[in-house]
Design brief:
Layout lengths: L6 H13 L2 H22 L4 H18 L9 H20 L23 H13 L2 H12 L4 H8 L3 H18 L1 H5 L2
Helix pairs in contact: 1-2, 2-3, 2-4, 3-4, 4-6, 4-7, 6-7, 6-8, 7-8
Family: Belongs to the sigma-70 factor family. ECF subfamily.
Organism: Solimonas terrae
GO molecular function: DNA binding; sigma factor activity
Length: 185
C-alpha cells in the first residue's frame, strides 16, 4: 500500500487482508459509515431507507473487493466510488432519471441541518433533486466531500472534462432554481 491511505485505515486494511479480521473491518465500517450514508442520502435526495440499503451494499462490496484496494487514493475515496456506483447501478436497474419538470417534494427532515433557515433548506433540497444523477454526484464529490476534480473524476470513473461539465451544468440549474434567494435581503 502507498502512503496515500490514512495510516489508521491502512493498519485495519492490512489486518483484514492478512487474516480475514472481521473486527478490523467493523472498525473501518464504524469510521466511514456516516460519511457514506450522508453521501448516499444526498444522492438519493433524502430517501433514508434507500440510502441505508445502498450503504449496506457499499460495505458488502468493500468487504468482497478489499483485496483490490490499491491505496493510490484515500480509503474513503474508494468507498465513495463504490457508494456512487451502487447508486448509479440502482438508477440503471430501474431506468430512473429526474427531469427538470419533476421536482419531488422532500420532507423537511431530509435536508441538511447545517443551514439554519428551514425555507432555504427545503428549497436547496428541492433544487438539488432537480439535478441529474451525474450532476448531483459530481457536485457532492467536489463540494460536500471536498474532493479535487482529479479525485472526484477518479471516484466517478469519468474524465475530468466530463466532471467539470456536470459541475457547470449542475451549478447553472441550482442557480436557476435558487435565484429567488439571490434577490432576498
Amino acid at each position: 500500500m502507498s502512503s496515500s491511505a490514512d495510516p489508521a485505515d491502512a493498519v485495519l486494511i492490512a489486518r483484514v487482508l492478512a487474516g480475514d479480521d472481521r473486527q478490523a473491518f467493523a472498525a473501518l465500517v464504524r469510521r466511514h459509515q456516516s460519511p457514506v450514508r450522508n453521501l448516499l442520502r444526498r444522492l438519493t435526495a433524502g430517501q433514508h431507507a434507500l440510502a441505508d440499503d445502498l450503504a449496506q451494499e457499499t460495505f458488502l462490496q468493500a468487504w468482497r473487493k478489499l483485496g483490490q484496494f490499491r491505496a493510490d487514493a484515500q480509503f474513503s475515496t474508494w468507498l465513495h466510488r463504490i457508494a456512487t456506483n451502487a447508486y448509479l447501478q440502482y438508477l440503471r436497474a430501474r431506468r430512473i432519471e429526474l427531469s427538470l419538470d419533476e421536482i419531488p417534494a422532500i420532507a423537511a427532515d431530509a435536508v441538511d441541518d447545517e443551514v439554519p433557515d428551514a425555507d432555504l433548506q427545503l428549497d436547496m433540497a428541492r433544487a438539488f433533486a432537480v439535478l441529474s444523477p451525474a450532476e448531483r454526484a459530481a457536485l457532492l464529490q467536489c463540494y460536500h466531500l471536498d474532493m479535487s476534480h482529479e479525485e472526484a473524476a477518479a471516484a466517478l470513473r469519468c474524465p475530468i472534462g466530463t466532471l467539470k461539465s456536470h459541475i457547470a451544468r449542475g451549478k447553472q440549474k441550482l442557480k436557476a432554481c435558487l435565484q429567488a434567494w439571490e434577490l432576498a435581503p
